[in-house]
Amino acid sequence: MTILDQCPSEANIRAFVRKLVFGTHVRCPWCSTRKIANYSGRFHCKKCRRKFSLTSVSWLSGMKLSWSQFWVLLRCWQQRHGLPVAMEIAGVSKPTARRWYRKFQYHLPYTQDQSLSGEVEVDEAFVGRRRHGNQRILFGALERSTGKIALEVTNNRAQGTTDRFILTHIQKETTVFTDCFSSYQGIDTFFGYRHETCNHSQYIFGPTNRIEAVWSAFKRWIRRSWQQVRAYMLEHFVREFEARNNVPELFESPESYLTKSLSCSISFT
After folding, report:
1. pLDDT digit string (tens) for 46-78?
2. pTM, entire model
3. d(CA 28, CA 34)
4. Strand, coil or helix: what is 229?
């Protein structure tokens, strides 16, 4: 079954979004009254006389797509389809597809607030090309028992940066597996972690094999979906990749994503 076959009708999508945004009854986002008139899809508040629409009160403001195109683009983004595929299926231009992919990414309802524990692999990776001034360093940690990850963009690999990342994302008394890079030395003595190392220069990768696989998957995903990423946008892509790994239920269907993202973005006075 294709994405188009799974797409609901325009009326059903609109009804679903309307229920998420307003609930059972349409209310004015400024005065909260239910005395609302509906004229050709736009709402007029009879109390404060302001006008609003289904999209203007959320991050969907300014949308010029049909509801079907919006739904298809969201599904393509969830399934990691590249921009050319999304353009063809949704029938939109490349700038439009890219803009909405970035909107979905920016409004992703995800916050990393869980510390890793048990046995955790830690490593760093270089992303981008230094000669073009587009290179950044990623620190990453992976919890072996659950597969959950924590990623962070940095500009250096100094010991203070390394220590701060580990203390922020990994609970005390955890067994931490790293390579023999000097910045990791002392985390057992000073912070109470159990620390085990492997020497990458001697081609020993076993203890950090899974976090190394994360870097491979991240770079493949960037090339497939985005071709390339500028350094100033890298944090948004890291957050999306982390969410795809840690909360995959957000990417199971447009309904699951919109239920969280629209509910988080609406607040009535």
Report:
1. 889 888 888 888 899 889 999 999 999 999 999
2. 0.87
3. 7
4. coil
